[in-house]
Structure formats: C-alpha cells, structure tokens
Amino acid sequence: MASHFPLPASRYSSFIKSEAKRLGFLSCGISKAGFLEEDAPRLEKWLKQNQHGKMDYMADYFDKRLDPTLLVDGAKSVISLLLNYYPSQLQNDDSYKISKYAYGKDYHNVIRKKVIKLLKSIKREIGEVDGRAFVDFAPVMEKSWAAKSGLGWIGKNGNLITKQVGSFYFVAELIVDLDLEYDYATTDHCGSCTACIDACPTQAIVAPYVVDGSKCISYFTIELKENIPAEMKGKLDDWMFGCDVCQDVCPWNKFSKPHSDPLFSPYPELLSYTKKEWEEITEETFAKVFTNSPLKRPQLEGLKRTMLFLKE
User: Fold this and answer.
1) Among 169, 201, 271, 301, which residue has the fewest nearby CB atoms (within 10 Å)?
2) How does the annotation summarize its subunit structure (predicted)?
C-alpha cells in the first residue's frame, strides 16, 4: 500500500495526466476518494421509484457504489478518464439504428487495457501504488466522479457533457491508494435548453436531470430480456441497439470530433447493412462478422426480437 512518496502530489498528478494523454485518453481528472454525499439521496429515490426497471444489479452494493473507499482498500484518489468514440462515418440510412459506441470493438476490453497500462506507468514512475481499474461493470458512479473531477457536467439527459467535445466518449476510473492534487467540478452549461427532453422518443427524461431507465430505448434494446412492452410500439424510432437521440440533438455535440483509435473503427458491414440484410443475417455470419462487438451482448436472438418488434 502506498504511504509516503518524496515528490509533491502536484508532480504526480501532472505525470498521470500527461501519461493518460500519451495513452490516447481524451482527458483526465482527479478527485479525492470518499462518500458521494449529493448522489446518495438521488440514487435512493431513483431506485425506490423503480426507474432502474429490471436492471436489478443497479440496486446491488448501494454503499460501495457511493463510496470507493469501501470498494478498494486504502483508496485515496479517483482518477477519471474519458475516451472518445465519435465515428467519422455513420450507418446507411436504410438500416436499423445502432448506437455509435457499438460501431467497433467492445470498449470494455479496449479501455481496460489502457487503464491498466496507466497504472503500470504510475507504479514505474512513482513506486508501489495499489489501484484498480473500473470500466462500466463495477458499482462505481462513473459520471459523478468525472463531473467531480472537472471533466464536464451531468446534463439534463443524464450524460456527462463537456463544452469542448460534447458527450460521445466512454468514462473509466482508476482508483488508487495515493494522495494526489485534486481538480474542481465545473459549472453546468445546459441553461434553458430542453432539446434532449423534447426529442426523447419514449419520454424517458421525466424531468431535467432525471432519466427513467425503464423507459429508455437503450434499456428496451439491450438490457431487457423479456418482450418489449406493447405500449412502446411506434416509439423506438428504428433503434435496434441502444439510442443516441438525446446526444444527437445536444448542441454541445456539434463540437464532437472523430476518434483516431483503430479498435473503434466501424465494422464495414455495420455501416452498410440495410434493414433487409439485418433481417436475413444468420447466426454463423453474425458470429463471424461481429467478433468482439458490443452487439454480442443481446446476441442475434435479442437483435432479431427487436427487429420483429420494429416491423410489426
């Protein structure tokens, strides 16, 4: 466990940020690990109102979700990292829609490897620092930590938004037992804009800054294992996997720039497939073409279920 290092915390923080940039991260911010006091009542209310739907895992590890010191022994700092996924090309117009984050390889493995490389660099430069990398699956309030460390603000659509680059990026954390120099939260720049609320096809943004996950298109097309509720007929806007509507209409995303990571390069078939080709794809072709794709999560069976629902 890290205890005493000879250089000031500011030097270590500067090194970590420059190393994160070298590894291809869009930006890096650092917060003091501790209990997320403001998030606790919001999360509790969200769960009590069943806005997590069938995502039972969201109710697990409530205390750990709010306090990384319960998740990682000796945790002192939360290093938040952003990785751009905005594509340079979009899908064919005559296609079932797929969220842009799923155009290339599964991001979990891509980002995790980068975060682990960052931890190795920290150990090499600073000493025996203990830490754990977190990418999406663990009970960590990723967007809250990123906002706390100044990387953006959580918008009315529930996404982390940054003035310079919008919101088309992944968020990951590295929690370490090292005292560092900490960043400050930025201000909210949503203003009076309600573009995301007005555009949501299923009215999932039930109030500014409150997203009912059980009404979100991403929930119906990825998370929900049961049949999509009949009342959603005609409301899914041809989305087969995920949904980008609230991000596409956000004015700050006019500043999004295409990523340069080859691992996130779109599968050519994903961009070119028509609705007919998606409907006719076989298990064999799907397994062969979409190796290591996020589309493997609902599996072809789940995608076909959604296609059928969209056609009916």
Assistant:
1) 301
2) Monomer.
